[in-house]
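Reading group handout, session on sequence-to-structure problems. Before we discuss, look at one worked example. The prompt was deliberately terse, the way you'd type it at a terminal:

> structure serine-type D-Ala-D-Ala carboxypeptidase

The input record follows.
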Amino acid sequence: MKKIIALIPIVLLVLIAACSNDEVTPQERFDQYVKHWNEQEFNEMYNMSTTTSTEKYAKEDYVERFKNIYEDLNIDNLDITYDKLSEEKMETAMEKGTAQFPFTVEMETIAGPITFDYKATLIVEGEEENANWFVKWDPGFIFPAIKDGGEIGLSNIKPERGEILDRNQLPLALNDTVHNVGVVPGKLGSNPEQAKQKISDLLGMSVESINKNLDAGWVEPDLFVPLKKVPKSEEETLNQLWEVSGVTERKVTGRVYPYGESLGHLVGFTGPVTAEELEEMDSGAYSANDIIGKRGLELLYEDKLRGEAGVEITVSKENEEDTILAEKPVKNGEDVVTTIDADLQKKIYESYDGKAGTAAAIHPKTGETLALVSSPSFNSNEMGFGISQSRRDELQNNPKQPLLNRFTSTYAPGSTFKPVTAAIGLNNESIIPGEGIEINGLTWSNGEGWGNYQVRRVSESNGPVDVTNALVRSDNIYFAKKAVEMGSEKYVNGLQQFGFAKDFPFKYPIETSTISSNGNLNDEVLLADTSYGQGEIQMSALHLAMAYTPFLNKGNLLKPTILADAEKSQVWQEKLITGEQATLIQEALRNVVAAPNGTAKGAHIDDLAISGKTGTAELKKSGEESGPENGWFVGYPTNKQDILISMMIENTEKQGGSAFTVGKVTELLKAVK
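And the output record:
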């Protein structure tokens, strides 16, 4: 105990000495100042500024300037570092009442990193117990370049949008000169209302819209008032516009679609980003004046096409060159090169002659998508440059539904589906090559469970019917019998191997092909109907085209591709049938066209051997004896096998059914041979 008591006076002496030396050092004050700065506490920083600084810079100006600059430039990861004063320099500073701290500022900005060195001077202000160290502040603390004045500028450099090209580098969407058509109000002539009506008719915009533009607060009689952008391809419309008094133009760059309606659904269009779209996007990704893909490939590949804006942070001073503080180079968008053949796409679209339907063309050996057609369609130029509400209403109310993208939709494939049923049966051995079955008459029912329902075929057979004969003659009863024989489980399993009820492996969103409304075929009548492409089975034109690839690739079902740099001949499902079975189906498809009893005799021409399969999908409702029909044909050149077209035309019941579609596909294959 005595030793402990003896130590107490010594401890007290130490404490007394420490208390007598509690004067704040410049090091401690600058530590505090930097802490506020790193945390962007500008009010506290201002309160630590010298009197001369606060007299020169009002608190509101100081705080708001710091705050606005840091917010506008998106300053983040701010880090101020400096070296501590040595004991010797500290003593000198305490004696003189002034200290200097060289420091380094590092920050991330919207234009990239900025780093600078500067020097802080601290001086003592106040008397005795109120004395303290304060920072002598000037604008160089924000950026040294504005120490003696100057304006900080932020410039955005818009990227050039990438183009969309076909397989031959032909532009499907490009940036080109367009005519920004407008009027000079004071030159509309003696009858302005008549002139406005003429402009309205030619531009497809209402007189009310024209007047709204002309009534804007900034408009003067001699100023140009823009109305609508028009591509230079609309030469006839432009020539008529130039004849109207007061109409003039400004040439600008815009998004142009050379193939118009033929590629409307596939390529889509761009337009100004909306407030709703901005809310859904990452902050800063787009601004209110940006253009964004709205539909089709323009939307699908938006991230690749749009690029990244360049940004420059500069300091401007009168009679001096701008000083660049930070610069993020503009990154232009990338081109998207597709497998599409634009000329083929146009030929297929024009072959519809306004009729409704859809088609897919592929290279059956590589899986490349050559065309995806939906008819009727819309003109991407019209949509992209501003469509009037009356024109939009006209498209929406059109009974042929030009705004509906049919190539992404699914339909009953009719008898074009029979080769798939044949392949499933051959694979699970419920169908044996060359083995025939007796079928009598034109109708068949499988007993009491079917009620009054009967499967009907087009023609009677002479003798037993095997798979080849059934394909050539398109015998519904043969395939219905075979599906019932193999049973629902085996048949559904085979359909799933062909990609039904599975996500379609394609970059462009295509509806999933379905087996039935509930995914099974437990009802025997539904099973029978499904076997020949009726019932509830639904598939897209592209899936149907791909379903024929196993017949031309030794049993392998290929994946479709749409980008030119994608790997070719990718296998989706392997070895669905053997090479021998594939050859059997190929030969049958040739005889569908070439044999006297084949259903596609219209495709039998002298200068081109064609193989394929017809199909008529009846859309009659329950209890109806007849209804609308969709005519299908899947065809390809027998020997070359470098193109396969899957085509459907709606409402062909009065035009010869599938024979009408056969004629269309035949002419197309002749044109591209």
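Points for discussion. First: Confidence is low (pLDDT under 50) at residues 1-21. Second: Residues 476-497 form the longest helix (22 residues).
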